[in-house]
Specification:
about 250 residues; alpha+beta; 3-stranded antiparallel beta sheet; 8 helices; globular
Length: about 250
């Protein structure tokens, strides 16, 4: 997740990327800074240039994530030998991403969704903007593979200079941007159970939430209950997710 600290070097600005590692031997947690994301600013009020810079900012962000995970991605599928205290032989470790702590703007950027002006503002389902926070039938869940395929098509159309009309046609009601999310390459997020849209929690640096508010946040998207949304995905790990999100 991003730290709230802004790093300034002369005229350059960057946000640090920090990862929290749990130690399974000692039970302690440790924060490590693993990289930095440069901040790209637009120096003009021209709408076309602002849109171009916004897209460039998202592309650089995804590239930073891809560089950081260049070893993690294949290890998530094939495993990686790891020396564990107490074991004579290296143990095959298969890493997984179980929680990404972020506020909503960062969540939308990581997934390659629009931040504003979108028809479907929820990252988990396809509830329409006018129906959000209203009682009614359930909205269909977002399909990870379908949306990533749309983002691939949109990215190719952008490279081919297909024009905004073609990008709007590809986008449809999905509210995607022509950016491919790097996390989709991680095994378990874009393959198997496809949990890419289910790993996000709340950023305690921005807002302090309690379980009842989390329940409301789930209900506004048409889910019957918080437990239905998480238990169906994580099963017995549901209680672990609660601790990570509210601790």
């Amino acid at each position: 997740m991003f730290s709230a600290v802004l790093i300034v070097y002369a005229a350059n600005y960057a946000y640090p990327i920090r990862i929290r590692f749990p130690n399974i031997i000692t039970g302690k947690m440790q924060w490590l800074t693993v990289g930095y994301v440069p901040i790209i600013k637009c120096n003009t009020e021209d709408s076309t240039e602002k849109a171009r810079v916004r897209l460039l900012r998202d592309a650089v962000f995804q590239r930073c994530l891809a560089v950081l995970m260049h070893r993690f991605i294949p290890a998530s599928q094939y495993g990686d030998p790891m020396v564990v205290p107490g074991e004579n032989e290296p143990v095959l470790a298969v890493p997984r991403v179980v929680l990404y702590v972020a506020d909503q703007p960062e969540e939308r950027r990581v997934l390659g969704f629009k931040l504003s002006g979108c028809k479907s503002p929820c990252s988990h389902c396809l509830v329409r903007k006018g129906d959000a926070a209203c009682r009614g039938p359930k909205a269909g869940a977002r399909d990870v593979l379908e949306h990533v395929d749309l983002q691939l098509d949109a990215a190719e159309a952008l490279v081919d200079n297909a024009g905004p009309a073609r990008l709007t046609q590809i986008e449809g009601d999905s509210s995607i941007v022509p950016i491919i999310p790097a996390l989709a390459a991680v095994h378990g997020l874009g393959t198997g159970p496809c949990c890419l849209y289910q790993i996000f929690g709340f950023d305690m640096l921005h807002v302090r939430l309690s379980p009842p508010i989390i329940l409301c946040a789930a209900d506004r998207c048409g889910h019957d209950s918080w437990s239905e949304r998480w238990t169906g995905t994580w099963g017995p790990w549901c209680s672990v997710a609660v601790v990570c999100m509210s601790h």
